Amino acid sequence: MAAWSDLTNDVLEHITSFLAFPDHYRFGAVCKNWRSVSKRRRYPPAPQLPWLVLEEEKETRKRKFYSLSDAKHYFIEIPELHGRYICGSSHGWLFAIDIKINGILVNPFTRESYELPPFPAFSDDTDVTTLVDKLPSDYTEGPRNGTFEEMRIKIVFKAILSHDPKEKSDFTAMIMFGCMRTPAFWRPGDLCWTVVDGPECSMQDIVYFKGNFYVLSPSNVVYVMDFESEPKLIEVIGPQLDIERCPFERYLIDFNGNLLLIKRFCEYEYDDDDDDDEEEEEEEEELIVTVGFDVMEPNLEENILFERSNIGDFALFLGRNCSIYVNSSHFLKCKRNGIYFTHTTYSFSAEKFGCHDLGVFDMTNMTVSKFYPVEVFPPLVGSPVWFTPNPW
């Protein structure tokens, strides 16, 4: 009987086509011959469920990831992410901001990266470049609730890409920045971000769909990005008021060739903080908790929204990332007709409890459950972000 190490390279390469990203490294650890085959990377990794990008380990500075497929944590040395806040993910790339408000776009596994230009003014009276110029040259970190620490959390609400930069070099990066979540874009070679003219309201989400960027407003207005002459937003779906209940957040997603609008509903729960001194009054802390979602499908031709009762065999992954969907029937540990979500807001509850609001909403029985062990994330480090590894 032939030894495993004697399998032909053709057979071994075929085996690698069925392996998820972490299994390629386990495969290469078997023996010298297998390691040689794994390094050729003839096949891309097999599809897997999204990972969560978590915080940086303080002692080792390694970035912590959580793989939903095998329910394991991975600690990976990625110097480009040292001390950086993750504000978005798209096509396997991460948008990251350091303490001096410098932004980069990086593929954490290929180590390819792009330096991003200074972000637009944070508000009418707060210009990022002016503030950073006042920093000492040896400044590395500020107080937990200081101006710069807070600014890098709030300056970019979301960031996405039109294409994978490895496949198309003339991609477009879009961000929603500042208190009003104003859209702005950048392309490789540009010296600055271009701010897009639009309505003065706090935008909710942005998505790249069928060759165009679409932006969503708080009144469920859907706009398409017009890049001709002066970039601006053009309304394609008129206002659709939420009469019965108001969503906490809204998302747009390219769902299997269809555009979906997702509404997220939250409630406030209260934590009783009993003080040892009986004379002091008991304080209640607010805790934001997700309780459900509604799924709508915009009809861009008829200018209306249709409600969907389910998403069938699929699962959605929503948060600060470019929204993701997968076919749950391809994965053992994925909830069918489910919406996985992460904590995406910064509030007083996040300051005390950390980014606690992670879970999965089952559209079949309308319940919320946990997919991740209860863990309090350090405040102001940033919300966990969904991420699809794109290692080669």
From TrEMBL:
InterPro entries: F-box-like_dom_sf, F-box_BR-signaling, F-box_dom, KIB1-4_b-propeller. It comes from the Eukaryota. It holds the Pfam family Beta-prop_KIB1-4. Residues 65-362 form the KIB1-4 beta-propeller domain. Residues 4-41 form the F-box domain. This is F-box domain-containing protein. The lineage of its organism: Eukaryota, Viridiplantae, Streptophyta, Embryophyta, Tracheophyta.
